[in-house]
Amino acid sequence: MRFTLFIIIALCLSYTAYAQPSKYKNVWTKAPSRIPNNASVDAPLMGNGDILMSMGQVGNTLRYYLSKNDFWRLQSKADHLSGPRIAGYLDINITDVAHPYFQAEQSLFNGTTTCTFGQNNEGIIATSWVAATDNLIFITLKTIGKPITISISVGAPANNAAKLKIGSTNGIAHLTRAFTDDVDIPTEIDVAVKALGQAGNTFTIAPGKPVTLALAFESKFKQNTPLAYVLKKAGSVDQKMVQQYRVAHQKWWQAYWQRSQLTVADTVLMKAYYQGLYTMAACSRDTRFPPSIFGWCVTDNPDWNGDYHLNYNFYAPFYALYSANRLQQAQTQDAPLLDFMPKGQSYAQKVTGTRGILYPVGIGPLGVDLTRDFPAGTDNGYTEHGDVEAGGLFYKQRSNAVFGVINMAQHWRCNYDKDYGRLIYPYVLATIDFWEDYLTFEQGRYVIYRDAITEKSGYNKNPLMTLALLRNALELILDMSKELNRDAPRRAKWQDMLNKLSDYPTEVSKGKTVYRGAEADSAGRPVHGASYSAIYPANGITFNSTSTELAIARNSVDATQRWDHHNSTNSFYMAAIRVGYDSLTILKELHIYALRTYPNGFQLDNPHGIENSCTVVNALQEMCCMSVGNRIRLFPVWPKDQDAAFRDIRTWGAFLVSAKLSNGIISGVVIKSERGKHCEVLNPWPSKTVSLVRNGKPAGNLKGSILSFKTTVNELITLQPLF
Q: Is the pTM higher than 0.85?
């Protein structure tokens, strides 16, 4: 009875002791200034993982920018001929108020955004939300003070490559936008908006009598006749249906936030934590079309073609989602990588003469090669002729495809879903095929030649990150091969590659040994400069590494100090955590980082958009629960005098782990085993004997620094010290 009561208390605590996203809001005291913008925006961000919306002010007009993850111009051609495109915009025009001001407030619980647009007690309040369960948007307008006359319209930027039709049918304004000429795959988007209870698109809002706009939009990828579909969809909506959609919306978001929870005392970090998870929920749920580099596309000319940039940018937004137990948002990453395999195989044959796959720096969905035939020398000399090979833009990098294995590996290790394993196995195998052929075996080790560390480094020997990425991929293929019973005869070769892969290059800098970016450049000269790139996201150095490796890794973190960097923060904080860097320093820098944002959580003066949505989420989760290397560590890099708690963090081995740290004491340790894997936990109570409870029944005691025990499928394990 005592053990059963302990389980009940632990589980109750895990569901009641957490901060709630409803406590946190994004606030704008003036109109966003970076919308429209060809890179990231500073505006409110709304979406359901498929359709996306942001908003801004254009004179007397409140403009809603509409985009959809599957609306691109799809042509295998560079120079801004391809990429995601804005679907269109909805304009709400107020003619009665001169120079209206803009203020907005957004709930991080469900994305509902309330905007005050007017001045001197005149204007409107617009409350907008993107339905979580259908491709519908609702905007409720009510007047401030006196009656206000408004007009609504739909439109899109001028673009000679786009076909645009705007019309009105039975009082429903609608828009069709398409890219069908000179493309690999034609695309079309259709938008329809209806003012409920109004005969047309110009009307007066009286005090106490709000008007709701229902906006539907869909693409030809989802519907054969999208215009007819959205006209019917918008036309069928009434106020009762709005309430039904609202209930479903609330229910979806409530379930999303219950996937896992975490709380710390720092409210700045908690807000940033929720901003990161909210952003990815809003933009990532379409399994064929993940979000592009900026997430929200508000123009027809996004920087970097708005592509899936494969030398880290595309992968970074997903880093935190696996441990956060948001696999639905995470799995969207995989489709473009799988779809590009035929072209990757062609590049491997033509560029390097190898089997497997070789990927350029940027791709699109459905196998489209967005950087194809990039015109070298036209971007102020950045791209040189040697950076384009066989028509593909590589910048001499050979690691783009194996970088794609990182998140696949994390998904697999945290879930062990064999259906998922069978889905990604051909891709993982193709990356290994490439490196089997591309590596050089000499003097007892496997060596990487002719691979660039970064886009403009030129060819290098043994780039640090590629070595770590390849180790990760080899460990993954060995694990998957056994679990899926595939390619047993090849395991010996893969194990030999792993055992004899070159060591990470090091050097002495300022009296300390550090890792460096590569062993040598193309001329055989040593490459100097500390690098942390092997540590994260490639899992190259962990707490399971030797004390010497960890010391070198900490020196490398100390030497680089990239707490605020254009490209590095989404990996640098995690690198510091993974090697046990000072926790107070990490939290201090993370707090400063979380304050250095636009109101929507995007980093100030950083164009890259959603890639930093992972930074705070990942850092807090890893500081509280680390499982890399199949050993669970509770609060391993967290100050013991600061309280914290978490529930259902997903770990390697397919475990959902919960625990609490209060007054320096760890308690409430609950582990749910999804797949019945063997479990190892670093003893949270050093030198104490630990009671093991299985599904509420005592199952013996454990001793030692490592608590090791078997589990069964769906088993609930609790650990409790015996004092």
A: yes
